[in-house]
Write a structure and sequence with these properties.
By secondary structure, the chain is of the alpha+beta class. It has one domain: Glutamine Phosphoribosylpyrophosphate, subunit 1, domain 1. Helix 2 crosses helix 3.
């Protein structure tokens, strides 16, 4: 009898649950982790790059961190194909707002737009929820730097620091204990790398499997910096993950 409730996205179980949405969230929890940290100098997005095969050519661009607009960036956890649809949708919404109003779209306004689109997929028969979750980091003049998470149900929430994806409970537990108000970017990077390592299957991670983007304001513009492998290695060593351990791994 229980199987009858997970065949459609718009059928509730007797205890008020949508099975297809829960399955989509579980699919996200099986993929590489991602996290965001808000500081008083900017934002940090970090993620684990999962290697499917050493035979694959390395991507020339980020596989999980995407620019949406000049002031908004996102990191993805879940099915990449589903994420690509929503990334394009978000970019189009931001571009249309800029064309119409000659100004940047507010981050929360964009989040509401995306979540309405995602939530619609949980109400329409013959469709399924998007199997992907996002962290959106951005800046606007009124609210400064902001961090939001979204999930397949269409819910969203604002955070000072949070993690999604595989082993996110371990990372979120660490962030709750160690996150403090008014962090500098340097302090935020230390917390981000330690939290990310807690989600990984090794205590001595390779820098090639970690991707970090720092978003900050320079003058009137919002700029992003992607850390290369040498910079990631230096950050790992600074926080107690020695080069010898990583070479042994």
């Amino acid at each position: 009898m229980s199987r009858r409730y997970d065949q459609k996205t718009n059928t509730f179980t007797p205890d008020g649950r949508l099975k297809q949405v829960e399955y989509a969230i579980e699919a996200i929890n099986q993929t590489g982790s991602a996290l965001g940290v808000l500081t008083n100098e900017g934002m940090i997005l970090a993620t684990e790059k999962q290697e499917v095969s050493h035979l694959l050519e390395h991507s020339k661009h980020s596989e999980k961190i995407y620019p949406i607009d000049r002031h908004i960036f996102s990191v993805v956890s879940g099915h990449t194909a589903d994420a690509n649809i929503l990334i394009n949708y978000a970019r189009e919404a931001a571009a249309n707002h800029r064309y119409q109003f000659q100004d940047n779209i507010a981050l929360e306004q964009l989040i509401i737009n995306i979540c309405d689109y995602k939530q619609n997929k949980t109400q329409v028969g013959g469709q399924r929820p998007f199997g992907t979750a996002f962290l959106f980091a951005g800046y606007d003049k009124k609210n400064g730097f902001q961090l939001f998470s979204t999930d397949p149900s269409g819910n969203y929430a604002g955070w000072k620091a949070t993690a999604i994806g595989k082993n996110n409970l371990a990372a979120n537990s660490y962030l709750k204990q160690d996150y403090k108000e008014n962090l500098t970017l340097e302090q935020g990077l230390d917390i981000a790398i330690k939290a990310l390592v807690k989600t990984m299957d090794t205590s001595s991670p390779q820098p090639s499997k970690i991707e970090i983007v720092v978003i900050s304001q320079q003058g009137k513009e919002v700029k992003s910096k992607t850390y290369n492998e040498k910079e990631v290695l230096s950050l790992l060593q600074k926080n107690g993950f020695s080069n010898e351990q990583m070479q042994q791994e």
